[in-house]
Specification:
Thrombin, subunit H; 6-stranded antiparallel barrel; 7-stranded antiparallel β-sheet; Pdz3 Domain; alpha+beta; 392 residues; globular; 2 domains
Length: 392
């Protein structure tokens, strides 16, 4: 019986591939991002703007740096509060987030779950978390420290920044809002605490540590990010939670750690100065302004997915190939990208790194290989605007 089942399964998989379907395996464990719940992640599709055009007048307040040219001002100022005082001041501003994700496999649809953390940043119920916490979610539930639970709607997200803003309607309940600090004023060695929902089941967990380094450039899920490094214990489920200074101010959004055998105390957070700019744009417009869009949909073909690329697109070699071009008709399906702005590129990540050097409205030369020819085509970069911003 087992042998027959295996044979049928193999035949089904072969038929699936020959039909031109794209079979993609998304690993459930990421190298740096801590998602909680051990669930697989898929991407959003079919957004719609929440309540039409946002154009919100809500402003998320944050102080500027207090440092002069020769000052060494810690972000908490003086005197420091005790750890217990900080905990009681900020605990109710940190929430637990649980998600449900409908996924499709060869054998049908199934629902997986995930967990993370978030921080309340506005009295109307706005909450900041990581994009990777709610990525692909069909439903998102927020649980407050008093046990009350609310369904959340999506205000906006930015995948590159790993920031998302969601919203709950808590009615007349007075929500505890985190006070934002200034990460520019942080000093290496300064005490901080992390508060979140490790393992997706231990909400309200506080860990202590210091700022181990500032402006640490790390590659997280294919994106280069400049992060705060801390030795405060960070575990799956802490993602989206708060990193607070000893004045009880939110100075970072926890989003990553290095998880390797023998490595401890390497946690990372998005500086609040960086997150605040993203948050304010998401609250006001539903997306981050000024992000360039090449209008190109590409596929990166490697030795691992060459077989699939051949059956779906007829691509026979490795490299970065154009599938669709929205900004110009001169770039065609199947063009192999060789250079962007005179810089050789061999992966989609390298393309994105080069494109980040340009501004909206700039023109960039894209060099492609097509049928034995090398062509250089001018491409005007537009602003990246999501079609919609809603779950599902």
């Amino acid at each position: 019986m087992k042998k027959n089942f295996s044979l049928v399964a193999c035949l089904l998989i072969v038929c699936f591939l020959l039909a031109g379907c794209d079979v993609t395996f998304v690993p459930s464990v990421r190298f740096e991002n801590e998602d909680g719940g051990g669930d697989e992640k898929i991407t959003f599709s079919g957004y719609e703007f929440v309540d039409g055009e946002l154009e919100s007048e809500i402003s998320i307040e944050k102080p500027n740096s207090q440092k002069g040219e020769d000052d060494r001002v810690t972000s908490a100022g003086q005197p420091y509060n005790s750890i217990t005082e900080v905990y009681h001041a900020v605990a109710d501003s940190v929430v637990e987030i649980s998600t449900e994700i409908v996924q499709t496999s060869l054998w049908g649809q199934y629902v997986s779950s995930g967990a993370g953390s978030g921080v309340i940043i506005e009295k109307s119920g706005l909450i900041v978390t990581n994009y990777h916490v709610i990525e692909g979610a069909k439903t998102v539930t927020v649980r407050l420290t008093d046990g009350d639970e609310y369904n959340a709607s999506l205000i906006g997200f930015d995948k590159a920044a790993d920031i998302a803003v969601i919203k709950i309607d808590a009615g007349e309940k007075a929500l505890v809002v985190a006070s934002l600090g200034c990460s520019a004023d942080l000093e290496v060695g300064e005490d901080v605490v992390a508060l979140g929902n490790p393992l997706g089941s231990l909400g309200g967990t506080l860990t202590t540590g210091i700022i181990s380094a500032k402006d640490r450039t790390m590659r997280v899920d294919g994106e280069d990010m400049v992060l705060l490094q801390t030795n405060a214990a960070i575990n799956p489920g802490n993602s989206g939670g708060g990193l607070f200074n000893m004045a009880g101010q939110l100075v970072g959004i926890v989003n990553a750690k290095i998880s390797q055998e023998g490595i401890e105390g390497l946690g990372f957070a998005i500086p609040i100065d960086v997150a605040h700019v993203v948050i304010q744009d998401l609250v006001t417009y539903g997306y981050v302004r000024g992000v360039v869009d090449s209008g190109l949909t590409v596929i990166e073909v490697t030795n691992q997915n060459l077989y699939q690329a051949y059956y779906k697109y007829g691509i026979e070699t490795t490299g970065v190939f154009i599938i669709e071009s929205k900004n110009t008709d001169e770039l065609k399906f199947g063009d192999k990208v060789a250079e962007i702005g005179g810089v050789k590129v061999a992966s989609a990540d390298e393309m994105n790194v080069v494109l980040k050097r340009y501004k909206v409205g700039d023109s960039v030369t894209v060099t492609v290989k097509r049928g034995g020819q090398t062509l250089s085509i001018e491409l005007t970069l537009t602003e990246k605007v999501p079609d919609s911003v809603d779950f599902g």
